[in-house]
Amino acid sequence: MKTFNDIIRFLMEIITCILLIMTGLTFSNLLLKSTFAGIIPVALMIIWAIYMAPKSKKRLPETSRLFIEVLIFGYTSIMTCLFSPTMAMSYLVIISINTLLDHKL
User: Fold this and answer.
1) CB-CB contact of 19 with 85 (8 Å)
2) Is the pLDDT of residue 105 over 80?
3) CA-based nearest residue to 22, from 36, 9, 5, 32
4) Considering the chain, what is the average pLDDT of its residues?
5) Burial of 94 (0-12, 13-18, 19+ CB in 10 A)
6) Does residue 51 contact residue 58 with C-beta atoms inside 8 Å?
């Protein structure tokens, strides 16, 4: 069960990046577009790689990781809601279940 959940988790992390880029590209203003489709997703990927990745040497404790996950996944859900409310709800349900299982297993 843990291996399956880890695979889903990895896919959801990739989907998170894709959704952030997609929603950022919906802005018409070039500054907003480059910020929300470029800078923010890259910053979140760097934060994830340094502090959240399973093999990271600077991995945060469980409660801190959970807090950051809620922020990142919540932000992604809100941004996706601007693009597609149905997709945002689907994402939120899947990532919530996955996060619960990930921190429980």
Assistant:
1) no
2) no
3) 36
4) 94
5) middle
6) yes
| Type of residue at 5 | N
Please state the pTM of the whole predicted model. 0.89
Contact present, 20 and 76 (Cβ < 8 Å): yes
Structure tokens at 33: 């577009």
Give pLDDT, residue 30. Answer: 96
Cα separation, 3 vs 87, whole angstroms: 25
- For residue 71 the two structure tokens come to 């922020």
Taking residue 52's Cβ as centre, other Cβ atoms within 10 Å add up to 18
Looking at beta carbons, which pairs linking 2-6 to residues 24 or more positions away fall under 8 Å?
A: 2/105, 5/98, 5/101, 5/102, 5/105, 6/102
Locus of tokens 């597609």: 84
**Mean pLDDT over residues 64-74, rounded?**
95
Report the C-alpha gap between 12 and 30 in whole angstroms.
28
Nearest to 12 by CA among 104, 102, 105: 102
